[in-house]
Amino acid sequence: MTANVKGDIAPGSWNPKRDRARMVQTIVKIIFGAFAAISIFTTIGILATLIFETVAFFQEISIIRFLTETRWTPLFASKQFGIFVLISATVMIAVISVLVALPLGLLSAICLSEYATPGVRKILKPILEILAGVPTVVYGYFALLTVTPFLQTFLPNLQGFNALSAGLVLGVMITPLVASLSEDALYSVPRSLKDGAYALGATKRETVVSVILPAAVSGIVSSLILAISRAVGETMIVTLAAGANPTLGFNPFVPVMTMTAFIVQITAGDAPHGTIAYKTLFAVGMTLFLMTFALNIFSFWFVRRFREKYD
Amino acid sequence: MQRFAQKIKSAARPARLAYSFSILALSASLAACGGGTAEDPAADVSAADADSGVSGEIQIDGSSTVFPISEAMAEEFQIANPDTRVTVGVSGSGGGFKKFCAGETDISNASRPIKEEEVALCDEAGIEFIEVPIAYDGITLVTNPENDWAQCLTVEQLNAMWSPDAEGSVENWNQVDPEFPDEPLELFGPGTDSGTFDYFTDEVSGEEGASRGDYTASEDDNVIVTGVESTSGGLGYFGYAYYEENQDQLKSVEIENEAGECVAPSRETIADGSYNPMSRPLYFYVQKEAYDTKPQVKAFVDYQLDAENGELVQEAGYITLPDDALAQAKSRVEEGKLGKDPI
């Protein structure tokens, strides 16, 4: 029917050569598909290796020993595999860093999005973002050579390597992450809500605290969780400044060993393939992966559950 | 230790290279002159080395502690003998002996004497070997400069701090000796891959590898230096060369030796044996057959034992053998004295 509109072309005779175009399309599709597949297969490969070696580990060491022992000495003659020794250190440092990053990051986000004039914001924001660009090894030495000696001037019990300064500096490192993502969340709160609050006679502080913050809470929490999983996986700062002494407990003044620091310790030495030290590496890696994975799932769930939609 | 040794070695390399090149040039010109060199025996020797026409491969493996010495020697040796190819591996003392007794290597480095079971392994395979000491090292215990109580420690006290039983229980200096102050004891040491760890645990706990696990263990001795330096109750151990390099930041502890005297580690006390039991000889083991049948292996062994090359041992951070021990080692090689026979 439509062919008849053209009039002088008989049905079926409009037959341009599209073979080349189709071929190009197919090739492009394959190329893009292949690149997308690489990242998927990498993830699957990493997961498979982790699972495979972790299973091998648990065939030798029971999961009960892994979860209940109170020492972590897999390289020594008296082997013990209490993963909570490493988890306690990791959690302690992550908590310290969040205690720094939450107020710093959230308050700077509020300042940037609500209080700062465009001129101030133009200067403040890049400065804050520079923090994110500092290499972690620099942060590590900063914690070890500057923060620790400074803290020691009024905390004489503080050891040379300690969880406290590593956690504090780690907190500074993740602050831009919290600040920048929280600012996005605050910024996307619709103008009409703020105007409504002002129209009701609310002050700026009341508007920020009772309207903008609750409206942006899902974004703020997800930024925080992203920052926590960054802190949990951070390696260089804790390796340099927190030491490598596996002790169970939450004393921030003494050297501790996080999961990442243990992985560094093993890979810096010589762990032949197939030995228990080698498998331990994967068991710890798996634990680390599960922790960050759980955090991410929680963050997804939280965002979905508490997101406020304003259309 | 290794990293450090490599660092100083690479710093010294240009100078050494220049030196070797000048020797090479000198010997070449002397050789060109013909017979007129007899009045200078030293030059004659190096001329002979360069012109000896030694060629072929030399396989070395073993201790990572001895590695810096071997590597430095191998480098210089290959410059003097361009047709040779020396491969130095690092499998640890034990790993090296496994390969050595399987006939895979010509020379095996070790930071401890060969064990009886390793001798048996070599016997089984029909491998005969000569044990040659190459240098001394002294494990040095270091504390924070503020530490004024631990002047001299006994092996028993070290055992109280470092044995597996101490894990989780000994955490204060006053538990080591009631006269020591109430100060948290924070320990730093090499990791389990280190030969220094093997030797130290053997001497202190009576069993190789038996150590508490709750201390800051690092393969990088820089970490031990930083830790002890910044912790008032810190105590750590590593090879003597490292202490020498960091004397300003750290204090060494005297060790009560077998004669009951407190001896501080120094080049002299390590060399004369009074700093015991923490000083140890480093060895290499050469396969007898390779020494007899491969001229390049013989040339390399002689090169390692040449008193002039003691400088390379010093540069690698170790203490050269005293002259009589070196002479003894040389005569042992020349006589072809087989088997395990520590000096």
Search tags:
heterodimer, A: 311 residues, mainly alpha, 13 helices, flat, B: 343 residues, alpha/beta, ten-stranded mixed beta sheet, three-stranded mixed beta sheet, 15 helices, 13 strands, disordered N terminus
List the helices and strands and how they pair.
The complex is a heterodimer of chains A (311) and B (343).
Chain A: H1 2-6, H2 19-60, H3 63-68, H4 83-115, H5 118-133, H6 136-152, H7 163-187, H8 191-199, H9 204-215, H10 217-233, H11 236-241, H12 259-268, H13 276-306
Chain B: H1 2-33, H2 41-51, E1 56-62, H3 67-80, E2 84-88, H4 92-101, E3 107-110, H5 116-125, E4 129-143, E5 152-153, H6 155-162, H7 173-176, E6 186-189, H8 195-205, E7 216-217, H9 221-230, E8 234-239, H10 240-245, E9 251-252, E10 254-256, E11 262-263, H11 267-271, E12 279-287, H12 288-293, H13 295-305, H14 310-315, E13 319-320, H15 323-335
Parallel strand pairs in B: 1-2, 1-3, 5-10, 6-7, 6-8
Antiparallel strand pairs in B: 3-12, 4-8, 4-9, 4-12, 4-13, 10-11
Structure description:
The complex is a heterodimer of chains A (311) and B (343). By secondary structure, chain A is mainly alpha-helical. Chain A is 74% helix and 0% strand. In chain A, helix 4 crosses helix 7 and helix 5 (118-133) packs across helix 7. The radius of gyration of chain A is 27 Å and the shape is flat. The model of chain A has no long low-confidence stretch (mean pLDDT 89). With 343 residues, chain B is an alpha/beta fold. Chain B is built from 15 helices and 13 strands. In chain B, helix 8 links the parallel strand 6 (186-189) and strand 7. The interface between A and B is medium-sized, with 28 and 31 residues.
